[in-house]
Amino acid sequence: MADAARAVVHDSSPEQYECVHCSAEVPSLFVKYSDPGNTSLVQCASCGQLADVHQSFPLEVLLLLDLVLLKSPVYRHLLRNRGGATAQDRHKYQLAQSFKLGALVLAVDTLVRCFGTETATESEFLALFAKTGAYCLVETLSFLFCVCIAAVIVTLPRSCWHDLRLVPLTYFYASLPVVLFLAITSVIWRDEYLPSSSSTSSPALPPFLAPITTRLDALYRSHRAGTSTPQPAIVRYAASFSRANLRSPLAEVGSARGWASEAVLRKWVGGQSAVVAFSVLLRTSKARSAVVLLVAWLLHLVVLHAIDPFLS
């Protein structure tokens, strides 16, 4: 009788979820019993693990921790299973999250770029903040568009083109670890964001790190300053599309003067996070996801250089 009272009742909705470990489809994420207050997580029939353990996380900070740790299952949870019991509910939730996270990412990125910028009055700073925010928006839209093009060219079959609607949400989720670290380093490595004329002191670092950071900083500065070593014509032509060659005032706002934020965070942490995120979205390997992002970044640089003269 007890077993009969606990008879399993699966959700009869035709909407499918996805196992965060093996990507297999599951009909429901919860096992429902006759007692409405008694539920448990579904076990995936393909891999034998809980289909989506993230459903039991009490705090969203745990999801952020998994994003920082570059775990693929958290992206499957956020992109496939989160937001409602039906696909329509999840689509509405994903659209709302895209706008919310997009506003957060753009606001923090703009604030970090404007951090330490010298202006004569508060109104000038607000005007600079607004213009920089608009430039960040243009940059973001350009990159998202280029990711869609690169995905279609490199890896995405026509049957999966509907997944491209999740490109903005995927990008913003992947940007959260970078935004978090940028906000922290803008305080720790404050000199990187201050005008060069006022950077008279080096940030306090443990003595054993000083030689390492000094060499990294010198290497980064020499990279941004360019080199006098003769290069083949094709290399010089490709290098001309480097972001360092953008000359509009808005493109140079907040350009980091050291290695920490630009080289380590935006490229290393941001790159790895994006590779993991888009490998989940595009249902492909991390190597192919990296190729998609590389092609998208090259297209993005071409777009930035095309619009740069109009922003001068």
From TrEMBL:
It is a multi-pass membrane protein. GO terms for biological process: intracellular sterol transport; regulation of plasma membrane sterol distribution; sphingolipid metabolic process; sterol metabolic process. Belongs to the ARV1 family. Keywords: Endoplasmic reticulum, Golgi apparatus, Lipid metabolism, Lipid transport, Membrane, Sphingolipid metabolism, Transmembrane, Transmembrane helix, Transport. Its main location: endoplasmic reticulum. It is found in: Endoplasmic reticulum membrane; Golgi apparatus membrane. This is Protein ARV. It holds the Pfam family Arv1. One of its GO terms (cellular component) is cortical endoplasmic reticulum. Mediator of sterol homeostasis involved in sterol uptake, trafficking and distribution into membranes. The chain crosses the membrane at residues 134-157, 169-189, 290-307. It comes from Rhodotorula graminis (strain WP1). InterPro entries: Arv1.
